[in-house]
Amino acid sequence: MEISNKSSKGKILASGIIPFAFLILLVAYIFGPGSDLLDFGIPLPEITMEKVDFVDSEILVTVRNTGPIPVEVVMADINDRIQPAAIEPDRFLERYETALVRIPFEWNEAEPYIIGLTIEDGTRFEKEIEAAAPALEPSLELAGFFALIGTYVGIIPVMIGLLWLPFIKRISKNKYHFFLALTAGLLLFLGIDSIEEALEVSEENLAGSFNGALLVVTVVVLSFLGLYYTGEKLVKRAESSRLTKPVAIALMISIGIGLHNFGEGLAIGAAVGLGSIAFSTFLIVGFALHNTTEGIAIAAPMSRGKGLVGKALIGKLAALGLIAGSPAIFGAWIGGFVYSPFTSVIFLAIGAGAIFQVIITLLRWIREEGDKNLSSAAVVSGFAVGMLVMYLTSILV
Amino acid sequence: MKKYRSRIMIASISVIIAMSALYFTFTEEISVQLEEAVFVTHTGGVIKTTGEVLDPLYTSATMEFDPMKYLREFNYGKVSQLPDGTTLREFTIIAEDDKVMEVSPGVFFNVWTFNGTVPGPTIRATEGDLVRINFINNGLKSHTMHFHGIHPAEMDGVFEIVGPEGGKFTYEFEAGPVGVHPYHCHVMPLEEHIVRGLYGVYIVDPKEGRPVADEMVMVLNGLDTDFDTENNFYAANTIPFYYQHHPIEINTNELIRIYVVNMVEFDPINNLHLHGNLYKYYPTGTDIVPSFYTDMITLSQTERGIMEFEYEYPGKYLFHAHKVEFSEKGWVGIFLVKDNLDQKSQTGIDYGN
Question: Given A360, B2, B255, B301, which residue has the most CB atoms within 10 angstroms?
Answer without folding.
Answer: B255
